[in-house]
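User: Predict the complex with phosphoenolpyruvate.
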Amino acid sequence: MIVKMKKNATKEHYNELTEALKNKHFEIKDVSSETVIIFGIIGDTSTLDINDLQAYEGVEDVIRVQTPFKQASRMFKEEDTIITLSNGATVGGHEALMMAGPCSVESETQLTTIAASLAKDGVKVLRGGAYKPRTSPYTFQGLELEGLKLLRKVADTHDMAVVSEIPSADLLEIFEQYVDIIQVGARNMQNFQLLKVLGKSSKPILLKRGLSATIEEWLMSAEYIMSHGNSQVILAERGIRTFEKYTRNTLDVSAVLAIKELSHLPVIIDPSHAAGRWNMIERLSMASLAVGADGLIVEVHNDPKNAMSDGAQSLKLDKFSQTLQTLKDLANSLNRPLL
Ligand code: PEP
Ligand code: MN
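Assistant: Here is the predicted structure with phosphoenolpyruvate placed in the model:
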């Protein structure tokens, strides 16, 4: 970190801050000139908050040179993190991974129909919401525990792994019993209490990007999970809120490139919640693979018109099969097969 003092800052101001930092075992490297007082703080500055330093009298500016996240950082670990799922599928390795399924688990018939079709397509990870974070309390809230049990049962018949969203920390034990990847929804990305609890889990965590979260905030949320003991974090870009209303959200494709520079963690794209429109899924998925995403998570439904949530963005089963083939062809040409 670099601190620049105000022109009228006194020696006392300088000493007060530098002594406080030295007491915290930081080294001070003074690079002041005749016209400007400026110094570097050497040490693990991830524990320092810029705002706290700015509260000192005489401080004009504080600039972070290192990232505030450590364990999630590419500087901390250079090689890509590869996460192996319970059925042997991997995220972050040579192959990109497709995850697919309905927005919500609605019934055994619905889930069985969808999973059978996905399994035929070779999909290794079944998604499905059991506890739904709906904007309105009057809309379908999910089958809850019954939904998790259905996901487990149906996935097991096809050797698929299950990904489902956890709404709160008190449900961790139940999720660990039924789910292979625990999803943190966009609305919970900064539920730090939840993130800390998930840090104690041995399951991989799929961390969706918050609706208005910066990439740094997103990685800081990953850091919460990792610093509490769980290094198996998969990031998922699912579109962010912008002024644009035509699409449900704005897919930030460049986030994949940013994450790849800043972090060693795998990052996948959810084009369904980004676009909110089924007819954009194929092209956005192609863009995702082209930009180097480690996988995709896509909503599909056997009867989108009558889906209990997110029907407008769900691909029909046959459309999904065709799309997957197109994506596999593209992935092969990019020398990064899609599983
Ligand atoms: C979902 O995956 O069904 C979901 C609600 O996603 P998000 O948290 O990204 O809105
Ligand atoms: Mn959904």
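The first strand starts at residue 2 and ends at 5.
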